[in-house]
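Reviewers of the previous submission asked for a worked example of the structure-prediction workflow described in the proposal, so we include one complete record here. The input consisted solely of the amino acid sequence. No template or homolog information was supplied to the procedure at any stage.
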Amino acid sequence: MKRQGIKLFDKIVATLLTILGITASGCEEQVVEYGSPHANFQIKGTITAPDGKPVKGIRINGLYPYSHPDSTEVHYSDYSPQTFSDDKGQYTLRVRGADVQLSVTDVDGPENGGSFATDTIEVPAFTAADSIPDTNEDNWDWYGNFEKNIDIQLKPTDTQK
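From that input alone, the workflow returned the following structure tokens.
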């Protein structure tokens, strides 16, 4: 009888917490639900070789900072969005809009015109100047689109200098 009372109490508490929107999940990402204001952030640019020619097939990753409990240093996640530059060296990478760095890696070596060193680029914070005006008046739950243009000139590997 006592167990049935405890189970009933647990169900009541779980139901009340669910109604209040409190869950036990430890999700790091916040889910955007219908009616929740949100914004889209992206970084665009062109990847070029030291001679100014566009380079295709370069991998661009967005890296996000996180804190480690055993350190005061800032670490950057390995789990991140990625894209590759196209035939014209252009890329577009959708990011979360928070602090972000770009990691640029030549994954195919000399096949794309040379071997280039891996590099990390600091991305300045998104500001109102990076906002793209809304053209759809029906988006009552929308905060907007933000876009930065970051062109990257690759550096040769140490063996090519």
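The mean pLDDT is 77. We consider this example representative of the routine output the project will generate in years two and three.
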